[in-house]
């Protein structure tokens, strides 16, 4: 029993010591309970004194090891806490620097916005001035066209009074066509002026350009239609001229026939006159022969009856001479009548020929006057066409100059819009960028960006590395964080410049 009491007391003391050590260990390791190894399970066994001493020594050694490990753990925790405090201080400093940088960027952006606004106002003023100059040039051109038209109309009116009804109708038709063309041109110019007044933004300029192209196509079609009409009119006039020429040739052939008939009639009259002369001569010779025969018979009768009736023979002789004289006078009268008839017929034919020549001359003069009037009308029509062509060329030149000015202005506006958008994108990306802790100053990389039309980032890839992979990844992340990026509203400009683009990321 005596030997049992010390062993029991030592066992109780050992158990109390173990409970105290366990409690102390539990209290010191509350903060790192999860990190510390699980507590050893102690099994209490009733031992003798030597074993209890050995066990106590072992427990002391274990406790010393635990305290040493705890001390090392505490030192590690302290070192980690100090490192974390240092990191927090660096992060605070970095945050302060970033806030300062953000303020500087915001101030710089504000300044740039003011400068952009000022530039836009200057561009608007320049655009208004250019539009004013274009309007003045158009007004001057319209005045010149009006003066030219008035002068042409006065000249045409003065010459139209001297022409015949057909030429007047042709000129009136041409004037009406010219007036229609002028009215169409005026309407087109008014439409253009109204469209130009609506040009305030880049997108509207593109739409206006499309409208102008469509209008130019319509005007070209109208011009081609007018040219076709003019060609048809020219063909009709040429056909009329050919018909008139054919008619003139027919008149000439008829006149040649009339002249041939007149010549034939004159030859016939001359032949009839010659026949009448020959007939009168033959009649005279016949009468002379008859007279000679009668004289011979009278002489024989007188010789036979000379003695019987001298007085009777003398009376008969006188009667015969009277009859012969009367016959000769009759023949002479017949000859003179035939000659007078032939002369009258020839005179009539001459007068008919003269009348035909006069008619031919009048026809020639009339045809010449008509040809001169037509030539004059054609010359005036050609002059009007040339004037209209000159007006059209001037209008086209003005449109080309206007289109060139508009294209230059649009190119300048597009360039400014692209530069402004890229600056805004760079600022937004820089604002979304978080500088890595170990990043050095002066780093830069080239990033290729793919966007949607809304500005949302589809892809951002570094294609020109800075040499620092962490910096490159931070730049790519900054582009994605800055989505959507500010892009122009003009779809064509967006597709050309910002659908896929690259920019150099170089934060200050």
Automatic annotation (TrEMBL):
It comes from the Bacteria. Residues 122-205, 236-393 are annotated as: Disordered. Keywords: Membrane, Transmembrane, Transmembrane helix. The keyword RNA-binding does not apply. Its main location: membrane. It is a single-pass membrane protein. SUPFAM superfamilies: TolA/TonB C-terminal domain. Residues 236-381 have a biased composition (Basic and acidic residues). It is found in: Membrane. The keyword RNA-binding does not apply. This is Cell envelope integrity protein TolA. The gene is tolA.
């Amino acid at each position: 029993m005596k030997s049992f009491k010390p062993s029991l007391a030592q066992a109780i003391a050992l158990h109390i010591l173990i409970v105290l050590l366990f409690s102390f260990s539990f209290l010191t390791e509350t903060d790192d309970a999860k990190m510390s190894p699980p507590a050893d399970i102690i099994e209490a066994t009733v031992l003798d004194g030597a074993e209890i001493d050995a066990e106590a020594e072992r427990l002391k050694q274990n406790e010393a090891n635990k305290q040493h490990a705890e001390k090392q753990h505490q030192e590690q925790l302290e070192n980690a806490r100090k490192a974390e405090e240092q990191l927090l201080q660096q992060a605070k400093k970095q945050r302060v620097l970033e806030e300062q940088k953000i303020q500087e960027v915001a101030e710089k952006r504000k300044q740039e916005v003011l400068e952009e606004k000022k530039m836009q106002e200057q561009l608007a003023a320049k655009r208004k001035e250019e539009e004013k100059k274009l309007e003045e040039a158009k007004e001057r051109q319209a005045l010149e066209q009006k003066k030219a038209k008035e002068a042409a109309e006065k000249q045409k009116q003065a010459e139209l009074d001297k022409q015949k009804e057909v030429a007047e109708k042709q000129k009136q038709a041409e004037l009406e066509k010219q007036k229609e063309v002028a009215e169409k041109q005026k309407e087109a110019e008014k439409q253009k002026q109204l469209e130009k007044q609506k040009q305030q933004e880049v997108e509207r300029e593109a739409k206006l350009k499309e409208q102008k192209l469509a209008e130019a196509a319509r005007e070209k079609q109208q011009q081609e239609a007018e040219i076709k009409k003019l060609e048809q009119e020219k063909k009709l006039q040429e056909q009329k001229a050919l018909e008139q020429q054919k008619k003139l040739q027919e008149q000439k052939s008829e006149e040649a026939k009339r002249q041939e008939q007149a010549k034939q009639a004159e030859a016939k009259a001359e032949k009839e006159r010659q026949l009448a002369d020959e007939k009168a001569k033959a009649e005279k010779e016949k009468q002379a022969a008859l007279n000679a025969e009668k004289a011979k018979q009278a002489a024989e009768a007188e010789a036979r009856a000379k003695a019987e009736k001298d007085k009777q023979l003398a009376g008969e002789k006188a009667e015969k001479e009277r009859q012969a004289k009367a016959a000769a006078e009759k023949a002479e009268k017949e000859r003179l009548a035939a000659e007078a008839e032939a002369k009258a017929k020839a005179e009539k034919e001459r007068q008919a020929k003269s009348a035909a020549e006069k008619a031919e001359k009048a026809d020639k003069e009339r045809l010449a006057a008509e040809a001169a009037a037509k030539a004059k009308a054609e010359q005036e029509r050609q002059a009007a066409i040339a004037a209209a062509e000159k007006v059209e060329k001037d209008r086209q030149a003005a449109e080309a100059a206007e289109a060139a000015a508009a294209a230059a202005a649009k190119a300048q506006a597009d360039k400014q819009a692209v530069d402004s958008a890229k600056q805004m994108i760079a600022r937004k990306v820089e604002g979304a960028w978080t500088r890595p802790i170990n990043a050095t100053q002066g780093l830069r990389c080239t990033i290729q960006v793919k966007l949607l039309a809304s500005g949302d980032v589809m892809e951002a890839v570094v294609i020109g590395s800075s040499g620092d992979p962490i910096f490159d990844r931070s730049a790519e992340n900054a582009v994605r964080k800055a989505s959507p990026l500010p892009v122009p509203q003009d779809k064509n400009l967006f597709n050309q410049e910002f659908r896929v683009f690259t920019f150099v990321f170089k934060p200050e």
